[in-house]
Amino acid sequence: MRCIEKQRDHNSLAFNPTRVDYTCCFQQLHANTGSCLIAIFHMVVSSAVLYWAARSLATGHKSRIDAGFELVLASFALLVSLVLLAGLKCESRRVITVYIAVQVVAISLLFILFLALIMGLKAGILDDPDHNGYKTIEEEMLIVVEILCSLALVGLEVWFLTVVLRSYRFIIHKQQYFGVDREENL
């Protein structure tokens, strides 16, 4: 038991679950619903990558190292998405914080990839060109498309992060208003 009680947030005195601060997707969904949809989206994408990597490993189209790395990464992404769903179900701040931390690291890595593509340090997401550089205009256009795709992916993941942060704020305000932490009661 704490000696000093936690101060309540001034926003928690007027807690309203339907407030605009807790909505997402152009104010059409509640932040918790949006976060669940984001977790499901990440689970579908991770499952597709797992299937694709396992299939390419079985057929021999990829090296064992590349396919193994993709399998580990997709499995980790699937696990983190399940963690988000569990955190939303239990209304656990600590569990959702794990997802937020992993999401920030993923956004940082995607942004570094974006910068590497722009600066020419990485020749491409899919494949590196020969030592002589690009030979055709198609290869040059492919790198431009990869740059735009990586920027769009960074933007999408940042938007997903803001939705999850709204859901996190909703859970914090709800716990402050009711004065109970569901984590401790479970």
TrEMBL record:
Membrane topology recorded in Swiss-Prot or TrEMBL: Multi-pass membrane protein
Source superkingdom: Eukaryota
GO annotations of cellular component type: endomembrane system; lysosomal membrane
Transmembrane residue ranges: 36-55, 67-86, 98-121, 141-165
Keywords: Membrane, Transmembrane, Transmembrane helix
Transmembrane helix is among the record's keywords: yes
Chief place of localization: membrane
Protein localization: Endomembrane system
PANTHER family for the chain: LYSOSOMAL-ASSOCIATED TRANSMEMBRANE PROTEIN, PROTEIN CBG16398
Name of protein: Uncharacterized protein
